[in-house]
Design goal:
alpha+beta; Nuclear Transport Factor 2, Chain: A; five-stranded antiparallel sheet; 42% helix; disordered N terminus
Length: 149
């Protein structure tokens, strides 16, 4: 028998013994390890709590108000939805952009996604220049849902 073949058999034997030893250490006595207790706090996945019904409703109202402000091209209405007051210059710039776009249609692509005190409303806008899908981030600040920025 050549030396390389013998060395390969020795390595294969060592690997097999390691697997057997590992199984014996993990499952002493040949029994499988005990299943974790699903009621134990550490065994439960740390999923965020289900959204509060009031927050779900408030986010839906805010998302609908965003769509309405865009469809009406009403920068003043949109400015009331933001977390921070907007300057007159910022609102005038938004209004100029919307006026230049011509008639638009806007709709939500799906119900808003709520995650704790943040959410996302995906808005689809169509105008003569094309279409755009925009994910609007939403945030709860001081008990009020709003558009950051």
């Amino acid at each position: 028998m050549n030396r390389a073949f013998a060395a390969g058999l020795v390595l294969l034997g060592v690997a097999g013994a390691g697997v057997v030893l590992g199984l014996l250490l993990v499952a002493p006595g040949g029994s499988p390890p005990a299943a974790p207790d699903p009621t134990a706090p550490s065994a439960r996945p740390s999923a965020p709590p289900a959204p509060d019904a009031a927050d779900t409703a408030a986010v839906a109202v805010l998302a609908r108000a965003i769509v309405d402000a865009i469809a009406r091209q009403d920068s003043a209405a949109f400015g009331k939805l933001t977390c921070r007051p907007q300057t007159a210059e910022a609102l005038a710039g938004l209004q100029r952009t919307w006026d230049a776009a011509g008639p638009v249609t806007a709709r939500l692509t799906a119900p808003p996604e709520l995650r704790g005190e943040s959410a996302t409303a995906k808005v689809h806008v169509e105008a003569a220049g094309g279409t755009k899908d925009t994910p609007f981030p939403l945030r709860k600040e001081n008990g009020r849902w709003c558009v950051p920025g």
